[in-house]
Amino acid sequence: MRVLAAMSGGVDSAVAAARLVEAGHDVTGVHLALSSNPQSFRSGARGCCTIEDSRDARRAADVLGIPFYVWDLAERFRADVVEDFVAEYAAGRTPNPCLRCNEKIKFAAVLDRALALGFDAVGTGHYARVVDGPGGRELHRAIDPAKDQSYVLGVLTERQLAHAIFPLGDTVKTGVRDEAARRGLAVARKPDSHDICFIADGDTAGFLRGQLGDAPGEVVDVDGAVVGSHEGTYGYTIGQRKGLRIGHPAPDGKPRYVLDISPVDRRVTVGPREALAVGALTGVSPRWCGPAPAGELRCEAQFRAHGEPVAATVTVSGDSSALKVRFNRPQEGVAPGQAVVLYDDTRVVGSATIDATRPAVASPAGDRLVGQRVT
């Protein structure tokens, strides 16, 4: 097959490309330039998409003896990922930009261009597996649970999975680094990137403040009493405990957590941990890694990239535009804007964007309802 290997400049994508070559595919490497003003160098594990990363990807391609190109997708990335990220926080939600990048950039813009150029598939260094199932191609968790990235790939459709290859899905991370060293790839000991790639210093609140400006408001308790102040609701997320800027402790002396975020009246509501318990959620814009399930689905749901999956029952709306997830036991830290990814054992069934949550018990904050998601 003719395979386009996405090469970020890190060890995972370099080894993935090497395995594609070794498997006999006709491989071409491509580095995605996602920043219109990239930094020269990374700072440890901060960020990515720097000039240094581009050069590391090119050197790896040279070692493998494959053609290499740089595709400038900075404008598309800003519109589909960065601006979406800012808009979601401005609306009081907590987005995951990695899912949006996979949906809009790597497996939409890149895959579409690759197919138009005559490639058969796109290969990446994600830790996940694509296997042939009885109904077609299926997305499954990686063998290494500590590195599994199926959550951020839960937005892929059946068509996209048919043209996706993840060569690292059956490998543990330590094995990949050792393999890179054996292959003579200079990125063998390069640190992984752990932060949002377009916020290299890791200061998300500072980045959002630069985009949205100061929008001071009140921090209140569940009775509406003012207990503090803030510079912008975008600096908070449901379940947050630290950095609340509360002037005095709760009457019972226990920590308080963010229960609700209301950008319209610039108000952040805080309260006891037990008020975080969520029994159900509503998801919108579902995407299925295969046919949409009919009727009620018993599965596992995961709402954080490295969170524990929990047993749940899912009901899809009649027009398939939304779904309801009911947890078998209450969950904490579920925030509108996050993705909920559904699993049948190791197989990814699909995903949706969390639009609203329903407390497991009656709460003075009420249902955490939000408006239509910005697209």
UniProtKB/TrEMBL annotation:
Residues 147-149 are annotated as: Interaction with tRNA. The record marks 126, 338 as: Interaction with tRNA. GO terms for molecular function: ATP binding; tRNA binding; tRNA-uridine 2-sulfurtransferase activity. The gene is mnmA. It comes from Jiangella asiatica. Belongs to the MnmA/TRMU family. The lineage of its organism: Bacteria, Bacillati, Actinomycetota, Actinomycetes, Jiangellales. Residues 281-354 form the tRNA-specific 2-thiouridylase MnmA-like C-terminal domain. Its EC number is 2.8.1.13. This is tRNA-specific 2-thiouridylase MnmA. Residues 207-271 form the tRNA-specific 2-thiouridylase MnmA-like central domain. Its main location: cytoplasm.
